[in-house]
Design goal:
alpha/beta, 13-stranded mixed beta sheet, 6-stranded parallel beta sheet, 27 helices, DNA-binding
DNA sequence: TAATCGTTGGTTTTT
DNA sequence: CCAACGATTA
C-alpha cells in the first residue's frame, strides 16, 4: 500500500487518492499521467472501492491498453480478466459480441478496417452506377464516418442541398450493404454499442450498475460519440452512477482533423460538475530550457485550460537552431550532427528526427542512407495491412462468414482461377436481382462463369469442412496451402518476403490462441476464428521493428506523441510547412499547429535541435518560405544559433552572402554548399515578407513564392480577402 | 490477365 | 519530383 504511493508528487498523489467522484486530470507532457492512471486503479482496488469487475479503463491505442495491463499486473496482484481495459473499439467489439442479437448483428460479424471499408464503398458505388467522379469514394467514406462519429444516422442528417441529400441516400445504401453482409466498420462499432445501450434498458442498467469507475486516457482525443458513450455508461453523472476519471491535456490535442473534440474537456467539467480539476505540471522528462520554450510557445494559444510545466532538473542545454540553404543541406547537417553525437557515445536509438509531413522524410532518409547510418521510419504499411496477409484473412473471413462480399471479391480470383470482370458483373447483377450476398448467389448462375464460381464456392466449403477440427494456426496454415496462396507466392519472383509474412501469420495465430488461454476447443472454430479476425482488424500490428537494430528514429510529429528521446531534431520549421499552409484555412487551425509544435518540443529530454531552410523542393518545385513563426515565439535567451541569426526575412529580399564569411560562426557546416540561386528578379522586385497592395483584394503581405519567370506565383495574405495565390505575370501588386 | 502508360494529386492517423 | 491509381494495350 505504502509502496504504491511512494514517490508520487503531491498532485499525483491527490489524483490517485481522490475519493470516488468525477475528476479531470490535466496532465502535462511527461508528467507521469500513465502512472497516475494505473496507480489510481490499483489504489481503488486495494482500498476496496470496487472489484476488478467494476473497472472500465479506456485508451485509444492497443499499445496504451497493453501497457496499462502489464504495468498494472506488475504493480499489484490482480486478476485483470475481470476488468474491461482496452481501446474504445476493442471494448465495443467485446460488448457487441456479447450482445450480438440485441445489436442486430450475426454472431460472427466481421470488422472492416478503413481499407476494407473503402473497398466496400467502391463496390457499392459501382453496383448503384454512381459516378465516382461526383462522389469520390474517399469523400463518401469521410462523410459517412463523420456522421457516425457524431452519432448521426442517415435519417437525422440535416441535408439542405441535393448533393448532401444524395450522399445521405448513399449512406443509407451503405448501411444496408453492411447489414446484408454482416460486417461492421470502425465507427459502427461505437455507434451500435452506444445505440444498444441507449435503447435497451436492461442492458444499460446492467452495465451502469457494473462499472463503478470509468477511467479515460488521452481524453482530449475523444470524439463526440465517444464522450456520449462514456457519459451513458456513467449514467450522465447521476447519483449512483460510475465515477468518471478523465486524464488528458488540451495542449496536446492534435487530432481534430479526425474528429477529436477538445471541447469534451470543458463539457465534461460542466456536465459532470467536476469539483476537482487536478493539474500535473511537474515534468520528469525534459530540462528547463526545453520546457520554457514549450511554455512560451503554447502561451500564444487563446483557448486553453491553462497549465505551466516545470522541472527541478535544471536548465540544461540551450535549444540549437540551424538555418540551411536547401532541404538537402539541412539533411546533410542533421546527419553530420548525428555522427558527431554518436561519436560522443550517444545511442542512435535515442535520437529522433521529427517532421510535420511524411514527404519530408525522403531527403533525410537519403542522406542517412548514403552515410550508412541505420535508421527506422515509423508509419508505413503494417503487418495485417499487407496484401498477402489480407488475402489469407479474406479466405478465413469467408469461412467464418460467407456473406462477406468484401472478402469474397478480394479472393474470388486470387490466385487467378479464370473468374474475370465479366463473370463478376454477371454475378453482381444476379445478386441484386435475388437480393442475396455474392456467395449465396452463385448457385443461381448457370453457364461457364457459373461453373468457375461454383468451384470457388466448393473450395470455400471444402476449406470449412477440412479445418473444422483444426486448431487456429493449423487452420490458417491449411487455408494458405489449399487456397493456392502459398503456391502463388512461391512462383512469384519477389514472393519470398510475402511467403515469410504468411508464415508469420501462422505464428500470429498460434500466439493468439496461446494468449487467449489454454481453453481453446478444436472444432469451436467459429468463435476463436472470429476473435482472431477481429484482432487482425482492430490491431493492425506494430510498425515493424528492426529488433536490436540500433537505429535513428524517423517519424512525423503526430506519430511521436507519447514518446520521448534524449535528442530530438525538428526539421522544416518553415511557414507553409509548419505551420502547414492548409491550417490557415481551418478555424483555429493555427492553434492546432502550435499544439503540434508543443508536442514536438516536449519530446526532447536533453537536447533539442530546430532547423529550417531557405528553399525547399516541394511537389517538384522549389519553394521559398519564411522561417516558422513558432521559432519567433521561443524566447531568444533559450536559443543558441548555429548559424548567424537573421531578422525574420527571406533571403529574397536580403541575399545571405554573409553566410560565407569564413570565420563568422564556428559550427558552420563543413561542406558549405553553394548559395541558392537568387530569385529576386523573378519576383519583379518584390520579396517575401513584403507588404503589397492589390486593386481588388486590398493590402496584404507576401507569404511565399514559387515558380519562376512567367510562372512565378506569390502567396499573399490579405488583411480582408484572406490568403491568395497570384500569378505575378497577371496580378498587379504594388509595394507599400 | 499482366504489363505498361498516363494521370493525378501530394498534411497529420488510430481503430 | 514521385508514388499511387486507373485505363489502355499486348
Amino acid at each position: 500500500m505504502s509502496q504504491l504511493l511512494d514517490n508520487l508528487n503531491p498532485e499525483q498523489l491527490a489524483a490517485v487518492t481522490l475519493s470516488p467522484q468525477h475528476a479531470l486530470i490535466l496532465a502535462g507532457a511527461g508528467s507521469g499521467k500513465t502512472r497516475v492512471l494505473i496507480t489510481r486503479i490499483a489504489w481503488l482496488l486495494q482500498n476496496g472501492y470496487c472489484s476488478p469487475q467494476g473497472i472500465l479503463a479506456v485508451t485509444f491505442t492497443n499499445k496504451a491498453a497493453k501497457e496499462m495491463l502489464t504495468r498494472l499486473s506488475a504493480m499489484f496482484p490482480v486478476n485483470t480478466r475481470g476488468m474491461w481495459i482496452g481501446t474504445f473499439h476493442g471494448l465495443c467489439n467485446r460488448f457487441l459480441r456479447a450482445h450480438f442479437r440485441d445489436a442486430g448483428l450475426p454472431q460472427l460479424f466481421q470488422i472492416l478496417d478503413s481499407g476494407d471499408q473503402l473497398a466496400a464503398i467502391k463496390r457499392l458505388l459501382k453496383a448503384l452506377n454512381v459516378d465516382d467522379e461526383k462522389f469520390p469514394p474517399k469523400d463518401l467514406q469521410h462523410f459517412i464516418n463523420g456522421q457516425k462519429e457524431a452519432g448521426i444516422r442517415p435519417a437525422a442528417v440535416e441535408a439542405w442541398d441535393d448533393y448532401t441529400r444524395r450522399r445521405v441516400e448513399l449512406y443509407v445504401e451503405y448501411e444496408a450493404q453492411c447489414q446484408r453482409e454482416g460486417v461492421v466498420d470502425f465507427p459502427e462499432l461505437l455507434l451500435r454499442s452506444y445505440e444498444l445501450l441507449e435503447r435497451n434498458e436492461p442492458i444499460r442498467r446492467h452495465y451502469q450498475g457494473r462499472f463503478r469507475h470509468i477511467l479515460v486516457d488521452e481524453f482530449q482525443d475523444t470524439n463526440v460519440l465517444q464522450y456520449r458513450w462514456l457519459s451513458l455508461l456513467a449514467d450522465g453523472g447521476r447519483e449512483g452512477g460510475a465515477s468518471l476519471f478523465c486524464v488528458g491535456d488540451d495542449d496536446q490535442s492534435i487530432y481534430r482533423f479526425r474528429g477529436a473534440e477538445v471541447g469534451n474537456m470543458r463539457d465534461f467539467e460542466k456536465d459532470f460538475k467536476v469539483g476537482s480539476v487536478i493539474r500535473l505540471e511537474q515534468n520528469y522528462r525534459s530540462h528547463g530550457n526545453i520546457l520554457d520554450a514549450a511554455n512560451a510557445l503554447i502561451a500564444n494559444n487563446s483557448k486553453r485550460l491553462g497549465k505551466q510545466l516545470w522541472t527541478d532538473r535544471g536548465a540544461g542545454e540551450p535549444i540549437r537552431v540551424y538555418e540551411a540553404f536547401t532541404d538537402t543541406d539541412e539533411a546533410r547537417w542533421v546527419v553530420e550532427e548525428i555522427q558527431s553525437l554518436v561519436r560522443d557515445g550517444m545511442s542512435r536509438a535515442d535520437i529522433a528526427l521529427l517532421y510535420r509531413s511524411n514527404a519530408q522524410s525522403r531527403v533525410l532518409e537519403h542522406q542517412l542512407f548514403s552515410s550508412g547510418i541505420p535508421y527506422r521510419v515509423y508509419g508505413g504499411l503494417r503487418f495485417f495491412e499487407r496484401q498477402e496477409v489480407k488475402h489469407a484473412l479474406a479466405y478465413l473471413r469467408l469461412i467464418a462468414n460467407p456473406d462477406d462480399d468484401t472478402a469474397f471479391t478480394r479472393v474470388v480470383n486470387f490466385p487467378t482461377r479464370g473468374i474475370g470482370a465479366r463473370s463478376l458483373e454477371v454475378l453482381g447483377d444476379a445478386a441484386r436481382t435475388w437480393n442475396t450476398p455474392l456467395y449465396q448467389t452463385v448457385p443461381h448462375l448457370t453457364g461457364k462463369p457459373g461453373a468457375a464460381l461454383a468451384q470457388f464456392v466448393a473450395l470455400i466449403e471444402r476449406l470449412r469442412q477440412e479445418t473444422a477440427n483444426l486448431r487456429l494456426h493449423e487452420m490458417v496454415d491449411h487455408v494458405i496451402e489449399v487456397s493456392g496462396l502459398r503456391a502463388h507466392y512461391k512462383a512469384e519472383k519477389e514472393g519470398q518476403e510475402r511467403l515469410e509474412n504468411l508464415d508469420e501469420l501462422i505464428n500470429a495465430a498460434a500466439n493468439f490462441s496461446a494468449e487467449l488461454g489454454a481453453g481453446e476447443v478444436p472444432g469451436e472454430h467459429g468463435s476463436t476464428l472470429a476473435e482472431f479476425l477481429a484482432h487482425a482488424s482492430l490491431e493492425a500490428g506494430d510498425h515493424q521493428a528492426d529488433v536490436g537494430m540500433e537505429a535513428v528514429q524517423l517519424m512525423t510529429v503526430h506519430a511521436a506523441k507519447g514518446l520521448e528521446f534524449d535528442v530530438v531534431f525538428l526539421s522544416g520549421l518553415e511557414e507553409g510547412l509548419f505551420p502547414h499552409e492548409n491550417s490557415a484555412l481551418e478555424l483555429d487551425g493555427l492553434e492546432e499547429e502550435r499544439r503540434l509544435m508543443y508536442v514536438a518540443v516536449t519530446r526532447a529530454r536533453q537536447r533539442l535541435y530546430l532547423s529550417f531552410t531557405q528553399s525547399r523542393m516541394l511537389h517538384g518545385q522549389v519553394r521559398y518560405n519564411l522561417r516558422s513563426r513558432f521559432l519567433e515565439e521561443i524566447p531568444d535567451g533559450l536559443l543558441k544559433w548555429l548559424t548567424p541569426p537573421n531578422p525574420r526575412r527571406s533571403f529574397v529580399s536580403e541575399p545571405s552572402t554573409r553566410y560565407y564569411n569564413p570565420g563568422a560562426s564556428k559550427p558552420a557546416a563543413p561542406s558549405m554548399p553553394p548559395p541558392p540561386p537568387q530569385k529576386s528578379r523573378d519576383l519583379g522586385g518584390l520579396s517575401i515578407g513584403q507588404s503589397v497592395r492589390h486593386a481588388r483584394f486590398g493590402d496584404g503581405v507576401i507569404v511565399s513564392a514559387e515558380g519562376s519567370g512567367n510562372d512565378a506565383r506569390v502567396q499573399v495574405k490579405f488583411a480582408e480577402a484572406g490568403s491568395k495565390w497570384l500569378m505575378l505575370a497577371v496580378a498587379k501588386l504594388i509595394p507599400v
